[in-house]
Amino acid sequence: MNILYLVHRIPFPPNKGDKIRSFNILKHLSRKHRIYLGTVLDHASDAAHVAELQKYCCEVYCVPPASKLGLLRSLVTQKPLTVSHFYDRSLQHYVDRTLEENGIDVVLCICSGMAEYVFRTPVVKENRMNGLKLVMDYIDLDSDKWSQFAEYASFPLRHVYRLENRRLSHYEGEVNRVFHQSIFVSQHELDTVESLTSNVVNGTVVSNGVDVDYFKPKERLPANENPVVLFTGVMDYFANVDAVEWFCERILDKVRAEVPETQFYIVGMRPTRKVRNLAQLAGVHVTGYVDDIRAYYRMADVAVAPLRIAQGVQNKVLEAMSTRNAIVATSKATNGIVCRDHQDLLLADDADAFSQHVIALLQDDEQRWQMGGRAVQTIREHYNWENNLARLDTLLQ
């Protein structure tokens, strides 16, 4: 088949949640289909990755990141910020031309904001689809994410986030009415949508996976003299910033009171000033970008996911499980993940319980090792990319 693949962020390198998913879908589909990729660069420097993507596509068309002026305009219109952020006129022209000239069988969009290119293209507006199939992969349910952001933001951002939640909820409803298939990353996401809307058209779950050859289980080594607690993530993302601030302010001192030499590593690119300032606290290390995150998974005694805001599937949790780490996480961080409390990991939603779980694991090497082993088995059973993406193959036929 000929597939027009519209992705809201360039799907390479696969170094953050949505890009991990979009790249693995691209790689999978390219084995049997002709892929026409239209995408938006995160940063101008991302243009250097086009050559890698051309290995999987017959065409790659990239546009630069959106200007802040476009976002400001959306505040006085009825369009969601998400739509304005990812919309570009030249990419629209590419979509229109590709649909007219290349016999496209399927349009697969990653992120609801990319539906705008479908809504505006003449082939759809003039009802000249001739069997063209429209498929939306929501990845994260963005409207609900903005609602969660509003809970923890201060004025005026709280107002902006609530407005985005309302606008995007309405927009996602329109997407669901127009597109033939709606894909969600977990049953939890699908259930959330069904609780918010009266009808989900052909909603299907296509789960994430883990590259288990890359994220191999670590070997058993003597415990660190200075125990290491690890958090990974892109560190200019609001939910990740909130998570490490909460951990440092409410949990870390309790842990260090019982295990005094505990070191907390925050590993991930683009740390904000707030995150960098956390390195002034005793035992806190902020690395910024690292070449190979696996070294930190191997080094860690305990991985943590103290997310109070979360949507979709947290790849940081899947990767920590795959590398045989003992994990303490909030329930929101594990929504949509197949895992068992006190078997594959430990769950806690308040600071006291979270700190006690971290302390217990730091003090019990055998419990960490056994829990990590069960987590690896769960990953191998439920998070194989090829097995999970086989459902996508069925949808596209």
Question: What this model shows, in words?
Answer:
With 397 residues, the chain is of the alpha/beta class. The protein is 45% helix and 15% strand. Strand 2 (34-40), helix 2 (50-53) and strand 3 (59-63) form a beta-alpha-beta unit. Helix 8 runs antiparallel to helix 9. The longest helix has 22 residues, at 157-178.
- Tell the overall outline: globular
- Largest sheet, order of strands side by side? 3-2-1-4-5-6-7
Topology order in helix (H) and strand (E) letters: EHEHEHHHEHHEHHEHEEHEHEHEHEEHHH
**How widely separated are the two ends?**
9 Å
Give average pLDDT, whole number: 94
CATH class of the largest domain: Alpha Beta
The secondary structure category is alpha/beta
Number of helices: 17
Q: State the CATH topology of the largest domain.
A: Rossmann fold
Short summary:
By secondary structure, the chain is of the alpha/beta class.
Characteristics:
alpha/beta; Rossmann fold; 2 domains; 7-stranded parallel beta sheet; 6-stranded parallel beta sheet
Topology:
Elements (H helix, E strand, L loop, with lengths): L1 E6 L9 H13 L4 E7 L9 H4 L5 E5 L4 H8 L5 H6 L2 H13 L4 E5 L4 H6 L1 H4 L7 E5 L4 H11 L4 H22 L2 E4 L2 H10 L6 E3 L22 E5 L5 H21 L4 E5 L5 H5 L6 E5 L5 H6 L2 E4 L9 H8 L3 E4 L16 E2 L3 H12 L2 H18 L2 H12 L1
Parallel strand pairs: 1-2, 1-4, 2-3, 4-5, 5-6, 6-7, 8-9, 8-11, 9-10, 11-12, 12-13
Helix pairs in contact: 1-17, 8-9, 11-15
